[in-house]
Amino acid sequence: MDILLSYPQIQQLIIIKLLFFVLLVFGIIAIYKKMRPSIFLIVFGGLTALGYAALVHGTQLSFWGLKGDEITIAAMYQGFAYKGMFSDFAYSYLPAFYPALFFQIIAIFGRFMHLNGVQMAKVGTAVTFAFFPIMMYAVQAWYWKDEKKKVAPVAWMLGVLLVFMLIPWASNINKPYELVSGVGVILWSVFLARDIYYARMNWKRVLVYGCSGGVLFLLFYFWFALAALGVAIFHLFNNKKTRLKDYALFAFVGSIVLAIGSIFLLPLIQSYYLYGSENWQLGLFTIEGIATSIPLFSLSLSGLVAFVGLLSLIIYRKVMYIRILLSLFVAGNLWQIMGMVMVLFFASPMQEAKGFLFFNTPILALAAAYALAQWYLLLEKKKWKHITQKNVGLCALLLFVPTSIFGTFADDENVLGIYERSIHNKADIVELLDFFGDTVTATPKMMVSGLPELHAFLTYDDVLYFNQHNSHPAAQFSETYYMLNSIAEEKNIDKAFDMLYSYDKTKDIDYFVLYAKEDAGYPLIFDLDDFPGTLRGDTIWFSKELFESSYFIEIYRSERYAIFTYANNVQNEENVVK
Fold this sequence. Notes:
The chain has 21 helices and seven strands. By secondary structure, the protein is of the alpha/beta class. The strands form two sheets. A five-stranded mixed beta sheet has the order 2-1-3-7-6, with no helix packed on it. A two-stranded antiparallel sheet has the order 4-5.
């Protein structure tokens, strides 16, 4: 693929590549000056955020052009900023069903700065790149502050850097909240299990673990399922008999976590009680989900590091820190096995591979960091002429810097394709935003055909969100989809309108934003579950005769889209397009 860049884009790329040399030079200085690892991580985080900002500068869409999950992610930022901090992004009457804390924090800033959902997503990624490295280091330093081991700071720093080396940059860019929460839950689980094992718990630590766990739960609760499995495995194969007091401590910490998590859970449970639940989120099946995930077999530097991590889990398994990491690592694989059994016997997927990218991969990084730090310490005891800590540090720096965001990642043609796929918004969306920007003063309810990306820029309620797997479970996707299909199939215009205007989810629609270039009618396009496939597109066709009847009034038309409203909704005939 040949990428034709403009001169300003070439300038941006050069800035990114210059940051490569800035990090390299600073790293060399840091090694010779024996700077604290924390200083290097602060600089690394700042330069990474700056490199990402340079990469996406001037783009109006997300990294992959606002595709797939990017639409829902941007919609969530948009919804939390302008619809309500505790409302679902697609349905105002429902609470958020996705852990929202990360999105809410960024949304507060986004609302203040009048950013749209795509811009807020970019801010969230940049903030993560800037502060996550030093925060991950600081958490480890805080926990191990009483450990008088000289190698510890090296291990903490390597753990941070190897996490970024092993997890693909594109994944970190798209889902920084999973990176932060995944690593956070791993460290939280290791520290908690270790403190309980060594009987170091007191009321202060119980409160710290409970409150910090509650925050992590609000960031992304799924990891706690893997953490619970991992801790259970740890105690199952532990030589020391688990005391009743240990179970009580886990239960007490867990109760605090759930108490804080109830901010999210209670409204969600209430919505399930009131409206029922139809959970499609875990139902997405992909062949990759049952594939054997062994990154250490890839012929690459990251594959070698992952292999070192696996060796570390085996060789140092008698070290309590590594033993707990090993238990958590097994939990990620056990989750896949459980998922495969569910598919095999019940045809019920459960995101089998969810535990790999942001859970097992950081575990390998932390385990590799421990082993490399131990081997690094040996160099101080050995008196080899050329193999010194300084020389090893320089070689490690030369290996690491090319794996940074401004290394080979920025040279990839798929990455550079951002300047084609993401540079401009769709003309249809721009035109509709121009119209709604002067018209909408509250959160309207809309039926939109074929433009799910509109959610990233405009705050509105859906009749039915386009993606079955990302639609709120309490929205009862199947029931609403069936009703819309029944209305569309009704040939009698009067009956069709009566059905539309009497159904509780369609009678209060403010705007029908419909694609108007098809002779067959006005399409509503959905992504539906297609087990054993992944997704299939499906279209519900509404007749043009229905909207051309006296029941509706056209208030806007562009080259490709028309906007209708119920005739009863029109209060001011001056707004009607003649």
